[in-house]
Amino acid sequence: MGNLSVSAAQAIVLQHAASLGVERVKLEESLGRVLAEDVRANRDQPPYDVSAMDGFALRSADLVSPPTPLNVIEDIKAGDKPTQTLSAGQCARIMTGAPVPVGADAVIRVEDTRELPDDRVEILRSVAVGNDIRRRGEGMRDGQVVLAAGSEITPGVIGVLATVKAAHVVVYRRPRVAILSTGNELEGLDEPIDPSKIPNSNSYALMAQVQALGIEPVLLGIARDDAQELAGFLKHGLEFDVLLVSGGSSVGVHDYVRPTLEALGVSMHFWRVEMRPGHPVAFGTSDTSLVFGLPGNPVSSMVCFEQFVLPALRRMMGSARLFRRTLKAKLAHPVRIYPRRTEFVRVVLSRDTTGEYLATSTGTQSSGALISMAQADGLLVVPATSSGIAEGEWATVQLLDGTAYQNEPGFEESL
Amino acid sequence: MGNLSVSAAQAIVLQHAASLGVERVKLEESLGRVLAEDVRANRDQPPYDVSAMDGFALRSADLVSPPTPLNVIEDIKAGDKPTQTLSAGQCARIMTGAPVPVGADAVIRVEDTRELPDDRVEILRSVAVGNDIRRRGEGMRDGQVVLAAGSEITPGVIGVLATVKAAHVVVYRRPRVAILSTGNELEGLDEPIDPSKIPNSNSYALMAQVQALGIEPVLLGIARDDAQELAGFLKHGLEFDVLLVSGGSSVGVHDYVRPTLEALGVSMHFWRVEMRPGHPVAFGTSDTSLVFGLPGNPVSSMVCFEQFVLPALRRMMGSARLFRRTLKAKLAHPVRIYPRRTEFVRVVLSRDTTGEYLATSTGTQSSGALISMAQADGLLVVPATSSGIAEGEWATVQLLDGTAYQNEPGFEESL
């Protein structure tokens, strides 16, 4: 196998990732899932012409030279049925969402009127036919596909699902994910501190990366460098749809992981990608599982998850949006180049005076410096073919978890 | 009260929103929460000088004119303790993360070596002192503040927490949120279809907006237009930290919500904001609760949530990142202006040939058209003071839920 680019490795992974069947879940538990079936409207919405404002339903032809006094013949609230037909010179007080009475062809909002004594109101301006009326079926028409299979369930989608009374929805199943760390040097979260050991952070960082996708993974624990023990762990891990193994995937002689996986029937598709951090990243498949061998270095492990595991899990969940949101940012300083490897630089985002994004390195880019991953807003991509990025040049930044919100509104206005 | 801008209304809301005390949660359940205490390292990390590569630990001075043969005197795996001191002409086979033996001052990766018979290895190039060695304490130093109070718990933060063995963390409490819909016209999700009624979508869309922030709200149901019933519901709702009331907040005569809230001890701070959609949005406070009166129109309700409820909930959760991520996009077409109101246009994002974001309206901007909210990637902000935005001009877009991922990687390279 020759040198493998990040893009080529992603393509290999995605060739082997597919959705996993469907299940029915309650609407209240469907956020973030992906619809596995088209959803159709089962009624016209609104069910009749309704007022878009609190105001008065009237005949627009009555308002030739406003102000015009009209007689209020009825009060119509949302949920009411109008009982009278409007004639010339008449209007009805009407609430937002209430049905427009027969005879009316427009609504005027209450702010453009003035109450008069004796159930009369003065209309202060003229309006066009249809003004502030929402037409029957304007929101959705009975039978219309309102949501296509493959739609990700967002709050807006949940609103539409509630509108068609979908108390349950059919969605793609989530993959079951197992996480295994390997290495004699690792110390478990519940073990006492041994200064000569290294705390097992990878299991938990990977757990959180999986949780952020809406999947609750199973932590298998730590496999020591023992062929028998490792084989037992890996066999268990292969009962899941996806197995993440961190550590033990590099090219050293003490690497049991790859041969043990192969002995368990896993075909390895790659074990190295031209990227930094993250060079020793492996991918294989069994009949029923995807297996990712992630580097033992905490940052490398997280960066490899972002590039390979995340798109696979999103595809398995039925989504078409497989990759992290990217945006363009200006470099606050030049970035160094590592020839022939795609480099992912941990950066913090800020704004310059014109509102453009500025990317600043979090400092040390050592693959052991997990704090810098905790501080980062994104990963700035330096393509393998780049001859360097200078201060002030534009680059692509992948947004990491925690960046859906920002400190400032991003717009400001005073009246 | 004069005309209130979105920014001014946000400022009023945020004046009344504060964090709510702290609680202790398991690390596994902490994603998305906000740290309420500084977190310090309780060890040096790495605990000793370790190898950053699989390769050989050696004395750099031995490599004056490579290739240089060296004697391999020991194999050191991660978790091992070296037993020998290197002398001139000697090296140790070493794994990533394993301790560097006394006498060695550099590591060379295995790819730059060639195995020789009789426990010897040929080193193919020279290296600088310190090459591929991660120094003790380089990741974190014992006692150092590694995470500051106020940090949002992302996967990277969870990795750092696991590194300092924080099996539990102290975080800000989440607000308890209740959601109430009002109106005789509303039909509950579990009720049979009545064509003259309007399905209650707002409770569920708001539920999902709250869930997307990591909070499980309580749905109080639907209050009919009955003063007694409404008072009972609102009284119950005021037992929560935040009460969202949708519908019934406008200026019509059938509006019981505002006087009932005031009778229950709620001070109303505003009840109208110069925005579209969403003009009739109200905010009040009791001694213990924030109350938002959201418009009955589904889109208006969601847009008002985004501008006012979301920043309040995020501040109550202890976050400093209160607002939606924004980015700049080019208008794919001109947008119309509604004078003196900030307009939020539902848009879909795409990319032009140079990779810049393009914003295209989802079509009808009627506040009843919930489907367009389900389709939208963002809300394009047309400031109240704007005199119009032409095709090709730049505008600010607030990213909505579901946009953390995109269809394309955003970068591409081949080797």
Largest sheet of chain A: 6 strands, mixed
Structure class of chain A? alpha/beta
Order of strands, widest sheet of chain A: 7-4-6-5-9-8
For this entry, what is the oligomeric state of its chains?
Answer: homodimer
**Number of alpha- plus pi-helical segments of chain A:** 7
How many domains, in number, for the residues of chain A? 4
Q: How much beta of chain A, percentage-wise?
A: 25-35%
State the shape of chain A: elongated
Q: What does this 3D model show about the protein?
A:
The structure is a homodimer of 415-residue chains. Chain A has 415 residues and is an alpha/beta fold. Chain A has 4 domains: 6-20 and 174-316, MoaB/Mog-like domain (Molybdenum Cofactor Biosythetic Enzyme, Chain A); 25-44 and 148-172, Molybdopterin biosynthesis moea protein, domain 2; 50-134, Molybdopterin biosynthesis moea protein, domain 3 (Molybdopterin biosynthesis moeA protein, domain 3); 326-399, Beta-clip, CATH 2.40.340. Helix content of chain A is 17%, strand content 29%. Chain A contains 7 helices and 28 strands. Chain A has a 6-stranded mixed β-sheet with strand order 7-4-6-5-9-8, with no helix packed on it. In chain A, strands 16-13-17-21-20-18 form a 6-stranded mixed β-sheet, sandwiched between helices. In chain A, a hairpin with a 3-residue loop joins β8 (113-116) and β9 (120-123). In chain A, α3 packs parallel to α6. The longest helix of chain A is centred in the C-terminal third of the chain and has 19 residues, at 298-316. Chain A is elongated and about 90 Å long. The N and C termini of chain A lie far apart (64 Å). The relative contact order of chain A is 0.13. Chains A and B meet through α1, α2, β15, α3 and α6 of A and α1, α2, β15, α3 and α6 of B. β22 (323-324) of chain A pairs antiparallel with β28 of chain B.
